[in-house]
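Aim 2 progress update. The chain analyzed this quarter is reproduced below.
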Amino acid sequence: MKPELRALLDEYAADHQHPLNRLTHKVGVPLIIFHILAMLDWARLDLSGGEGVPYGPSLGHLGALAVLGWYLRLDATLAAAVGVVGLLSLVASPFVPPLVTVGIAVFAWVLQLIGHGIYEGKRPSFTRNMVQLLVGPLFFAAVALGRYTLPAAPGAARA
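Predicted structure tokens:
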């Protein structure tokens, strides 16, 4: 694993020690990916030249490609895993009513605040480093794929 990625994941892990906070994030982070891409998908670039039905990429497509490029620079396997979630989000988003998307956004962010405020007792990582907003999806992909082992919680007994 690249040292830059290891440092980003370690920083994220330090603010996500409590198992219930991590659980709220396992649910909330994919929902946040969905709602951000879905909302960005509402804004499309019209490449039709004003003739016929407008077509072209959305800001969701462009944003997903930009983030995917950054992820690929860090780790291709993790980029692919998170990219699948992004792709599924972009495919599903046109079928989800805007009000439902807004509801998902509110639910996901409240879940994150509960995780940090009630369980973790720490501010989210992104309040110190905005890049950490992009690290969350990589973190959970890395843990799920066995590419990153969670450090022992402070004060935990070591075997």
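The chain has a mean pLDDT of 89. Residues 3-44+58-144 form one domain. These observations will guide the mutagenesis experiments scheduled for the next reporting period.
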